[in-house]
Amino acid sequence: MAVDSPELCARSDDGRSFVVADAAGSAFVAGSLVVVNAAGRRQLALVEERSETTPVRLRGRLIGELGADGIDTRASHAFERALVEAADAQTVQTLHETTGARLEVGVNLTAPGGPARLLPKRFNRHTFWCGQSGSGKTYALGVVLEQLIAHTALPVVIFDPNSDFTRLGELRPDATGPTAEALRERDIRVLRPNGEPGARLRARLIGMPLASKAAILQIDPIADREEFNELIHLQAFLETGEIDDILPRLRDSEVLAQRRLAMRVENLGLPGWEVWARGDEAVTDVVARRPDVTVLDLGGFSTPEQHQVVALSLLDDLWARREERRPVLLVIDEAHNLASPRLDSPIAVAVRERLIQIAAEGRKFGLWLLLSTQRPSKVHPGIISQCDNLALMKMTSPVDLDELGTYFGYAPTALLERSPWFRQGEALFAGGFVPAPSLVKVRARLTREGGSDVDVPLR
Description:
alpha/beta; 15 helices; elongated
């Protein structure tokens, strides 16, 4: 076969990258795994770029040295001349075993093929997941979450605005195997705005930081300085009850600033919001017990501000408890609803600023983000820039692809550029959670989807 010809030779000057000056007749493309053999020292490598010029040139990175005990991904070396051959399935299996890649999410689309696996331990970094509408983004995310939930002890909290993950605890009738059996044993909680008692999605104003209470009340510390100052002095009082309890006292107070606070509460319609816990358990209490999965079905509230209150309440609480260092993965589907740079209401700004803080500092405390959206421009750059893992599905916008190339330099440009031609369910995985950048066809889900496209009626 042409790709195994001894005339196909590589050179590495720095021990990190390699180049094949003339790859005429080679079938290798960007994404192919190869083995370079220099005087008996064999190294696994990834082809990152194939030129269209004459002669055809290959460029790529060295992954690690092949030895009797596996692949040393911390060691690679320069060479003047090395023969290039295709990596076989056993070599890829060795790579998976060496790196700890055991979450099987699909099949590799580039040579030598075989199963595509992710590293569970590297979800201790923030992950960015994107793909345009119709790419299969949400379905594929469900596949990865099934694997994480089944094969790790990492608690997962899903911010779910479209009810896509509310059936994550329901396995399909034909679901079999170790992953399915493990999923059946997991504690999966689904909290809904209109849920049954014990499963209602609620927040508690008590205990929220002063800045968050001010954001909910739309009180600016300078423009509304009298009311904000009164809020400071009422902190102890505000810890004794919810809005229903404190509103009568504020309304009947002889202090003008307190009566103004009461009017603000009523004018904003806060007493009528269904989000308040009142006698129900708050979302912070549920997540504090760390079920295996907590799905927050955000879409059923009567106003968008209420799902932002839920998010702010939980994010504030997790940040306040960060020194406990209890790991949790925060999956934010349709992340532009909470992390867009364009959101400008006081509550939305408070949520976004907390997410930026968690993105920048939360990793060392075990607060890890996975953000899913249709376009990178819809998420604040201060959050995207902190992501060390990338999952990219079909995306046809050149502007968005250029932006991704800027943020995720570890993703080969030639693989990013293939995104417009991905079929539904195909993805590029790059970063720390994959042994090497890979083009993948995602496997079928074991659990039911919570939402799906509406069919066009036909005559």
